[in-house]
Amino acid sequence: MRMPAIIIGVILLVVGGLITAGVFKYDSKETAELGPIELSVTKEKSPPINLGWILLGVGAVAVVIGAASKK
User: Fold this and answer.
1) What are phi and psi of 38, to 5 degrees?
2) Which of 35, 49, 59, 65 is the most buried (most CB within 10 A)?
3) E-assigned strands of 1-71?
4) DSSP string spanning the chain?
5) Count of alpha carbons within 13 Å of 32, Cβ hemisphere only?
6) What sections of the protein cross the membrane (predicted)?
């Protein structure tokens, strides 16, 4: 149980850090049709920064629990 907790914690720390830094972005496409005219808008969005902070906290807790647990 020790090693999986540490590995999952490190993965969560890395993903949370990247989200907090604003590295992850995704596109959202919206279209509207008005008769023969089609309008489309593409917006670049990023996940909420609070999600990154939550993942950082959960990852830190998982690493500490994994490191403190006995074999």
Assistant:
1) -120, 125
2) 59
3) 26-34, 37-45
4) -HHHHHHHHHHHHHHHHHHHHT---EEEEEEEEETTEEEEEEEEE---HHHHHHHHHHHHHHHHHHHHS--
5) 4
6) 49-68
Report residue 58 as tokens: 């959960």
CA distance 12 to 59: 5
What are 32's two structure tokens?
A: 């509207």
Where are the chain's structural domains?
A: 2-68
Answer for the pair 54, 16: CB distance below 8 angstroms, yes or no: yes
Residues 6+ apart with CB under 8 A from 36: none
